[in-house]
Specification:
single chain; about 325 residues; mainly beta; Methylamine Dehydrogenase, Chain H; 4-stranded antiparallel β-sheet; BNR repeat domain protein
């Protein structure tokens, strides 16, 4: 019997004698905690995605090599990426017969797909720029975005199941060095966000620019459907942008540092992460926020992901320093 349980048992025995029973001690409330830490040999974590709280992936690494780990509901363990795959910047998956296909976007214009049998296919998009985001509706309809800052030109590319094609950037009202993330609700409702507050929208036939009233970088986006999408960004101060199906609105949150990752549950409540280990909750339909955690401070959290069941993870590392980096994951597991 542990030292912690013995006094409780003696107290219960006394109560049982006096009252004929004993109420069990309530279970402790779940809390945010550091779930994984990595040294310089592994690197930082930049993105997380998974089909369930017992199958969750995070990717990252260092400029010399990419890395991936998996959470099985109890612990994180390293997983194999294709041999020679560079720094992995984003991970996304799709349901498939017998499991899930994983897509990873990385540096040097490289992407990779892991089939349900565990085999990898590496794809070279024909550019030397980094790919920052990847998303799609099917293995035959994938979008990837990227570019360097400063850089020659942003990257917007489409995969049709057999080959990747570079797609021209539409006319813009400002300079654009890179697109950072892409996400959508269907093949005819796709959004990409990036440098200088640029937002692009694809309607199934063409890409056009949409305005949100900000010139700050927008780093990531997520939503519940075509009428509720949230993008976050900012550098010195956090920026939140919302789309209601008709137009974007944005607000700079002066009390927040820059935000990097966001995820929304099915009710529209947002979960975002950023600089100084920041973890916040954004109530549905608002620009308000509640600070939840900073246990990863002073590290930067770059990616956010969660599940309606309540599990949440934020991934990052000491990304404000020159590589090689160290990595960290904060997690909330009810």
């Amino acid at each position: 019997m542990s030292a912690r349980s013995r006094p409780q048992s003696l107290a219960c025995l006394a109560l049982a004698v006096l009252l004929g029973g004993c109420e069990p001690e309530p279970a402790p409330e779940p809390a945010w905690e550091i779930g994984f830490e990595a040294d310089e040999s592994f690197g930082a974590l930049l993105s997380a995605w998974g089909p369930s709280p017992t199958e969750l992936y995070a990717v990252g690494g260092n400029p010399e090599r990419g890395a991936m780990i998996r959470f099985d509901g109890d612990a994180w363990s390293e997983q194999a990426l294709p041999e020679g795959f560079p720094l992995a910047n984003w991970v996304f998956g799709l349901p498939a017969e017998g499991g899930t296909t994983l897509w990873v976007a990385g540096n040097e214009g490289m992407a990779a797909r892991r089939d349900v049998d565990g085999s990898w296919t590496t794809m070279d998009l024909g550019t030397t720029g980094p790919l920052w985001g990847i998303w799609g509706t099917a293995d035959s309809n994938m979008w990837a975005v990227g570019g360097s800052i400063p850089g020659d030109e942003p990257i917007l590319a489409h995969y049709d199941g057999s080959a990747w094609t570079m797609v021209p950037i539409p006319a813009l009202d400002r300079e654009l060095d890179a697109l950072f993330k892409v996400w959508g609700t269907s093949s005819t409702q796709v959004f990409a966000v990036g440098h200088s507050g640029v937002i692009l929208h694809y309607d199934g036939s063409e890409w056009t620019q949409q305005l949100a009233g900000t010139a700050s970088d927008l780093i990531s986006l997520w939503g519940t459907g075509p009428n509720e999408i949230v993008a976050v960004g900012g550098r010195s101060n956090g920026v939140i942008a919302r789309y209601d199906g008709q137009a974007w609105r944005s607000e700079t949150i002066g009390m927040l540092p820059g935000l990097n990752g966001v995820w929304l549950d099915s009710e529209g409540t947002g979960f975002a992460v950023g600089v100084e280990g920041l973890v916040i909750e954004i109530p549905a339909g608002t620009f308000d926020y509640e600070e939840l955690d900073r246990s990863a401070r002073p590290d930067v959290l770059h990616g956010a992901f969660g599940f309606d069941e309540g599990a949440r993870v934020g991934v990052g590392g000491n990304l404000l320093f020159s590589p090689p980096w160290t990595g960290v994951i904060v997690q909330y597991l009810p």
